[in-house]
Specification:
This protein has 245 residues and is of the alpha/beta class. It has a single domain, classed as Alanine racemase (TIM Barrel, Alpha-Beta Barrel), CATH 3.20.20. It is built from 9 helices and 8 strands. The strands form 2 sheets. It has a 6-stranded parallel beta sheet. It has a two-stranded parallel sheet with strand order 1-8. Strand 6, helix 7 and strand 7 form a beta-alpha-beta unit.
């Protein structure tokens, strides 16, 4: 069970511990990539987030758009970038276009069109990652691996979207080999598509791995790991509960 961090020092210690584990996993990895830690702050109240920011967390990931937008407004006095990592409905595209610095769950042309239209109106651009369903679970959002190449070919129509890579959620299971296979699938797909990516599509980033499996993800090539409970403390419900359905 992850303990609740309740002070700047406790947040700083948690982040340093995670970053040390990331670096150890990176040294074990044959892929030689740089890895960024994305603290995931879903369900964490503003007063505790302010402590985390004081501890150095200036880039925060959120699953639910309205919660993230509310926090962005409440914490506008702080230097924080907000990353949306959960499924997006087209009617929420306006909010994401307004405040997000990155969207990691793009998996539909309708959402791409809605985001692009809103961003163009605001004169903004947005970094995006394409979400891939590497586990094959029907409960997961994301494109099937075989759909990604054709999807990327359509991205040139959306001038405000900057495709930077791919994202996945591994299977929710204790079967570590099945989890690792999800990460291998994403990396292998990225490496293959890199060779034929359309102009403007950059596939440098692999966002994969969470509190329970981020070291495995780094070993398999992750460049971004999304860690929540190991930094902020345990949530009241299982992680899968917080992903929009």
């Amino acid at each position: 069970m992850f303990q609740q961090a309740a002070s700047v020092d406790e947040f700083r210690q948690n982040v340093e511990t995670i970053e040390a584990r990331i670096e150890a996993a990176r040294l074990r990895s044959p892929h030689g990539q740089l890895v960024r830690l994305l603290p995931v702050s879903k369900t964490v109240p503003e007063e505790r987030l302010r402590l985390a920011v004081q501890a150095g967390c200036h880039r925060l990931g959120e699953n639910k758009v309205q919660e993230a937008h509310r926090k962005w407004q409440a914490m506008a006095d702080l230097d924080v970038e907000w990353v949306v990592i959960g499924h997006l409905q087209t009617n929420k595209a306006k909010l994401v276009a307004e405040f997000a610095s990155e969207f990691q769950a793009l998996d539909s042309l309708r959402v791409a069109e809605a985001l692009d239209r809103r961003l163009q109106a605001l004169g903004r651009g947005l970094d995006v990652l394409v979400q891939v369903n590497t586990s094959g679970e029907e409960s997961k959002f994301g494109l099937a691996p075989h759909e990604v190449e054709a999807f990327l070919a359509e991205m040139g129509a959306f001038g405000a979207l900057r495709v930077r890579g791919l994202m996945t959620l591994a299977a929710f299971t204790d079967d570590t080999q099945r989890v690792r296979d999800c990460f291998v699938t994403l990396r292998t797909l990225r490496d293959r598509l890199r060779q034929s990516a359309p102009t403007g599509v950059v596939l440098d980033e692999l966002s994969m791995g969470m509190s329970g499996d981020f070291e495995m993800a780094v070993e398999e090539g992750a460049t971004v790991v999304r860690v929540g409970q190991a930094i902020f403390g345990a949530r009241a419900l299982p992680d899968s509960h917080y992903w929009p359905s």
